[in-house]
Amino acid sequence: MNDLLNQIRLVGDWLTSSQQWHGDDGIPHRLAEHLTYSGLSLLFATLIGLAFGLLVGHTGRGAFAVASVANLARAIPTFGLVVLVVTLAGLSTTPVLVALVALAVPPILINTFEGVRGVDPDARDAAKGMGMTGWEVLLKVEVPMALPLILLGLRVAAIQVVATATVAAYPGLGGLGRFIVDGLSRNDYELVIGGSAVVVALALVVQAVFTALRRAIVSPGLRPAATKS
Amino acid sequence: MIRFDAVSKNYPNGTTAVDGLSLELAEGGITVLVGPSGCGKTTTLRMVNRMVEPTAGTVSLRGQDIREVAAPELRRGIGYVIQHAGLFPHRTILDNVATVPLLLGWGKKKARARAAELLELVGLPATMAKRYPYQLSGGQQQRVGVARALGADPPVLLMDEPFSAVDPIVRGELQAEFLRLQKELHKTIVFVTHDIDEAIKLGDNIAVFRTGGKLAQFDTPERLLAHPADDFVADFVGQDRGIRRLSFVQAAGLPLREGPALPVTASVAEARALDEPWVLVVDDARRPLGWAEAAGLADAGTLADIPLAPLGHTFSLVGDSARAALDAALLSPSRLAVGVDAQGAVAGVADAYELSAAIAGTGGSLGAAPEAAGVAGVAETAEAAGPQLVKGAADPADAEDAEDADGSGSNTGKTGGGDR
User: For the ABC transmembrane type-1 domain, which residue ranges apply (chain A) (predicted)?
Assistant: First the structure.
């Protein structure tokens, strides 16, 4: 109990000391780097995951391939991938982005695919029978109906990416992982815990953003079904 | 209007859904496709809007091969209603109904105004417009499904078992409502059901399919019941087709006799003097009140003082069918069916023997009717020979006379209750 209080006090001291809020080593700069890595990899992962998820869900072809690829990708250790790409491509942001994209694609892909495939066949049949084209069925019926699951996939991916983007610090890049890696090498636990606290806070913010997003863009007609599942 | 020319649908796995179907559906009528599961009726329906493409033959709509029109464009001009309504859960009721107008690019305001109109037409209150499908009952959802199909006022409506997923009471309401709507709208409707009763109630013409996608018989409901083409059809329309056929015989032509009727003010002595086991008690406008049993009569007083046995139900000479009359006879405590006129006053009584003798006469004339292809031909032939055949006697609200009878307000609750 005293340990915990002690740690909270340490984090408090660390967070409130003015040097943490200025310069290249300050929280704002590291946070900006962290958000850049996370944002970019989420963007790529969303493009890939949504495109394939929608395509396979809509056509019903390649479902097995999607499931296999996604599960395989889940088994890849993120840190190992970073090291691998660093040895292949050299030291840059690329290894980090590749690793984070590989981490973020499976939840987005699987949830998008499941969301579209799970659309009530009657609604799809009615949409087609009333004269919607394939694109109209996808955009006016399947995507809106799959939106709760699509958002869930994006949220899971975003939180994982935000938490895992700390690996960028290993190959010497920035981001909030800097505090943790540096703290560990210097045995500066105040730094480690402080850095972790910021990462946790960021994950909570991401969670809150997605909750708000869901309220804003998911149709109220879908909410009862979505809360049940 | 809708024409099938040697249409077949075979699947790669070797099953034949529809086998060499040739059929022409009349404009402005309800054609019911009926048959056991796997008989190709739904496939046939779905070939009209190209949801299923035939492997052989042509389907044409108003003389044009439907393959000449792009599928989405074709479908926007054909209403489509399916079993579980298939509403879009993420859209409000109003926006569901506005779907096709929006697809056609009407603009939001105009499309929604049209949708509001349609909700009213199918009998849904305006307060439902802003709700979502999950907030509606099955029957209400099905009404929305019909409204949505009518969105752009298409001349043709395809309905695939639209009423089979709701309970029997709601189904009855929806069917009556549907016939009322059709009377107003005169759409060309193709209606799929596995329920022969529904087919007979709703269809102007019925196509009976047998397993393997072959057309077994295409005829009017009356002729289907009177002259099933073969054992399969006879079996499919059911053992009681003789009774059901009575729905197409108007009660108006049935012979009634005066019967033992007395006003409620008459004395018990008068009732006894008739020397009948049962006496029909009527009010001062000759509307029936109930039956008095002679054996239970007191020694003095008037008929107003004694307890009456209930009528069961009466039948109306305007609007009801012979089936209602026969049912009234079977349910009556005196075994006499009471026929009432448009004002609800007693026109006469008849027992089941008298009724069946009269109906048998009709059956004979029906049997003598030539192989007629059209509805009109059959009706005229039968008209000459006693009780008229009337299309739509199955539905009390369908015949105009029946509406008048309803308007008079007397005894409507009981009249014709046994029909169906």
Answer: 31-210
